[in-house]
Amino acid sequence: MIAIHADLEALLGDAQRAVDSFYPGHWNLMVRLEERAKALLVSGNIAEAIDFLADVTVLKQPYRVDRQKVCERLRAVPNEIESAIDALGRISSLDYRAMDVLSKVPWFGIGGGRAFNSAVMRLVRPESFGIIDWRNLAVLMGAPGFDGLVEPWTGPLQTGSKWSGSGSEPAWITKLAIYIAKSQKNRTV
Fold first, then answer.
1. Whole-angstrom Cα distance, residue 19 to residue 27?
2. What's the 3-state SS for 3-27?
């Protein structure tokens, strides 16, 4: 199990600094993207959608994504972008099926996988899709001042999607524990 060892309110008060320690401006980018998602669904503007989607790729992988290349590729598929905007506008009724439409857009299923796709879902409808990435917790935990926030499970893990503990925890917890343990092991002090 994961155990929390901290004053959560104090840590949450310092969350912006911690997130920005991963990538400067990361916190404000996420806030702006949440606002832009709502505006995009109202306007339906393809150029705005391309900028929004390109910024989502930067949010997810700021050190690996070339935003200009993403924009160039997205400009080549205006019909897919238009369909994605339409599906995201109907996310209340489509739910996860909107991901299938968005996955036809390069970087959001084709040549990028579902990681960027799920971030769009969370930004468009945060009340239904609450997490962008399990690594966000690991980023916070690795930030200065957040050491010891969570103690990951360090016992043996089964292959597949379960802990070697009770066996009822979801797969993402296993991934998180492994990621955190590796991060802490490789961190230089």
1. 6
2. EECCCHHHHHHCHHHHHHHHCCCHH
CA dihedral for 113, 115, 116, 118, sign (positive or negative): positive
Each residue's pLDDT tens digit, 118-159:
889 888 988 777 655 555 565 555 666 555 555 555 555 444
Q: Report the candidate in 41, 97, 49, 38 with the shortest Cα–Cα distance to residue 74.
A: 49
Distances 186 to 179, 180, 182 between C-alpha atoms, Å: 11, 10, 6
End-to-end CA separation in angstroms for the chain? 26
Q: What pTM does this model have?
A: 0.68
Crossing angle of helices 114-124/26-43, nearest 10°? 70
Domain ranges of the chain: 3-20+133-186, 23-124
